[in-house]
Amino acid sequence: MKLVAKLIIRILANSAAIWVASYFITGFSFSGSSRDWILAGLVLAVLNSLVRPILKLLTCPVIILTLGLFSVFINIFVLFLAEKILPNLRIDGLWPAFWGVIVISLVNYIILSIFDNKE
User: Fold this and answer.
1) pLDDT in tens, 75-85
2) Quick one: DSSP state of residue 93?
3) Cα–Cα distance between 86 and 44 in angstroms, integer?
4) Is residue 4 part of a domain?
5) 46 or 119: which leads in pLDDT
6) What DSSP letter does each residue of 13-28 carry, written as one string?
7) Cβ(19)–Cβ(30) under 8 Å?
């Protein structure tokens, strides 16, 4: 049951993070119903759970050489991949994607740290 609750919180956190990014960042937009927001959160959660670890494993030497900064580019790639999957998400270039990754990461960090159960 805890796994399902964590998954729901992560999906809702991703949905909220996409909303915040689309509200504050010019060139980063998402339009749709509440169902579309939840679907976007689900897609981002799945991509972050499946694709991002594989990319990090494949680019591990580059991540080490850049002292972790290459991870930002992996996150940008995952965000562009989500844009290809989601018809309601639009990112107009590298800088909106960069700031989108920063905002999404911060919002996710804040929300997930609030709901984190330390057992």
Assistant:
1) 999 999 999 99
2) S
3) 10
4) no
5) 46
6) HHHHHHHHHHHH-TTE
7) yes
Average pLDDT of every residue of the chain: 93
Q: How many domains does the chain have?
A: 1
End-to-end CA distance of the chain: 15
**Number of C-beta neighbours around residue 19 at 10 A:** 15
Please name the residues in contact with 81: beta carbons below 8 A apart, sequence gap of 6 or more.
47, 51
As to burial, measured by CB atoms within 10 angstroms (0-12 exposed, 13-18 middle, 19+ buried), residue 102 is: middle
> In this structure, are residues 28 and 96 in contact, taking their beta carbons and an 8 Å threshold?
yes
Helix count and strand count (H, E) for the chain: 5, 2
In a domain, 73, yes or no: yes
Residue appearing with tokens 């995952």: 78
In-domain check, residue 118: no
Q: Which domain holds residue 88?
A: 14-109
Name residue 25's amino acid.
I
